[in-house]
Amino acid sequence: MNILKTTLLASTLLVPLAAPAALAETPDGVLVVAQNIDDIVAIDPAQAYEFTSGELVTNLYDRLVQYDAEDTTVLAPGLASEWSADADAKTITFTLRDGATFASGNPLTAEDVIYSFGRVIKLNLTPAFILAQLGWTPENVDDMVTGEGNTVTVKYEGDFSPAFVLNVLASRPASIVDSALVKEHEVDGDMGNAWLNENAAGSGPFTLDRYQPAQMVRMSANPTYFNGAPEIDSVIIRHVAEAATQQLLLEQGDIDLARNLTPDQIASIDAQDIKVETFPQAAVHFLSFNQRTDSLTDPAVWEAARYLVDYKGMTDTIINGQMEIHQAFWPKGFPGSYDETPFTYDPEKAQEILEEAGIETPITVTLDVINAAPFTDMAQSLQASFADAGINFEILPGTGAQVITKYRERTHQAMLLYWGPDFMDPHSNAKAFAYNSDNSDDNYAATTTWRNAWAVPEELNEQTRAALTESDPEKRLEMYVDLQKKVQESSPIVIMFQAAYQVAMNEDVNGYVNGATSDFVYYRLVEKE
């Protein structure tokens, strides 16, 4: 009966949404998701760089080490059961998991790892830069990644902590492909790229049954998965671009999860059999002051500003469900995050700070902001709350391109923006918020510190460099926590919020995991009761 219902559901996927299938509920053992998936350009791990493609890669492939569904904050063994690092020799040696196989049935070998890493570097497609950070090139990668028996040795160049290298190897392009299967589908030297953009060759918890761009994805549970077969038999992701249609399908029982509902739609759901879960995301939102503006250079202004943000007022209203209060540069949900929020809206305290420092008010400051919700609403909230202490914002709305260009040119005064890590290692944000060793105009750096012309104290620069090279993983994370505390205490960059993501689902769905990035979306633990 389940097979029949599954077949019928699959046949409805091509029916126009104007005439939805009359389904009272989704089939047992099948999770049906409505999601806008038209961002996918590629699903080959060596090329995939979009949000949705990252989700697919995570569920179809494994890495030597990886952040898994059971705890997205822990770097866990993947296809490697153990590893040892030699920081002096700049090598990490991995022992491959006994009995690990690909979905094809082919056994995992050292050759698969060597081929997979070399393939990314040699194809040199969009995400290749992540692995190239390790000093790998098409010319040297075969010498940098070697293997024998059940061990693989990875060499790297650069003054890096082994923990940093492990995070690189836990990233999307470090996914391991079935080299024998991929080589069978190589055409004109493309290393199987065309075939892998329509198929999969992984060892992950799911196998790819069908992928139709901007239409649907169907995955089935991999019964041989090393960490145990998924609880759900299959996952169907329907491309539904319109949020209103997603809500309708969810309320009718035609889908189990709606991935792209707006905050207004979330608030309007009153069905008792639908629940909403909120997941922190990686982007942090901040208010920053350009140190080229004389009236904004006194640290007392920075300190007062931290008490002039109506954090709770905004999260309870205009950004409800979209952001949560977070006041440190590394996002909550990642190892090394600092989640204390010591600042609250207190205009009287802010006034005292300014008066004790001899700051003359009023101060008039231009505030650049992207002309879109919720940013303009947030700017207006800041305008109102800062006025209570005599800091008057003149809001300058602009397109995203206009605002970011101004920011890169250091021609703003105050800026309302957000920042997402380039890479899932705390150094990526520490470099952005706690490091600036050369503040000169001709030393452009893609960091918030340089763009706000903040000459970071050398103590912070030294600590950022030291954390990058620290070989003890726990001590390294402690160093990043300490860095966050120092930047939180005194910096012209006031970190206010962390983005949040809401997913509406039927109440009988449990175990869905949506981590802080698209690479941390997991269906392996999902159950339908």
* CATH class designation of the largest domain: Alpha Beta
Low-confidence segments: 1-23
Note the main sheet.
11 strands, mixed
Query: What's the CATH H-level superfamily name of the largest domain?
Result: Periplasmic binding protein-like II
| Beta-strand segment tally | 21
Oligomer: single chain
**Counting H and I runs of at least 4 residues, what is the number of helices?**
19
Question: Can you tell me the number of structural domains?
Answer: 2
Distance between the termini: 17 Å
Overall residue-averaged pLDDT value? 93
The percent range for strand residues is 15-25%
Structural description of this entry:
The chain has 529 residues and is an alpha+beta fold. It has two domains: 2-261 and 507-528, 3-Layer(aba) Sandwich (D-Maltodextrin-Binding Protein, domain 2); 280-501, Dipeptide-binding Protein, domain 3 (Roll), CATH 3.10.105.10. 31% of the residues lie in helices and 23% in strands. The protein contains 19 helices and 21 strands. Strands 1, 8, 9, 10, 11, 12, 13, 14, 15, 16 and 17 form an eleven-stranded mixed beta sheet that branches. A four-stranded antiparallel beta sheet has the order 4-5-7-6. Helix 18 runs antiparallel to helix 19. The longest helix has 17 residues, at 473-489. The model is unreliable at 1-23 (pLDDT under 50).
Write a concise synopsis of the structure shown.
The chain has helices spanning 2-12, 51-60, 110-123, 128-132, 141-144, 162-169, 179-184, 193-196, 243-252, 263-268, 299-306, 311-315, 347-356, 375-387, 400-409, 426-433, 448-451, 458-469, 473-489, and strands at residues 30-35, 65-68, 71-77, 80-86, 91-96, 145-148, 151-155, 206-212, 216-221, 234-239, 257-258, 274-289, 323-325, 363-370, 391-398, 414-419, 493-506, 509-510, 513-514, 521-522, 527-528. It has 529 residues and is of the alpha+beta class. Helix 11 (299-306) packs antiparallel against helix 13 (347-356) and helix 16 runs parallel beside helix 19.
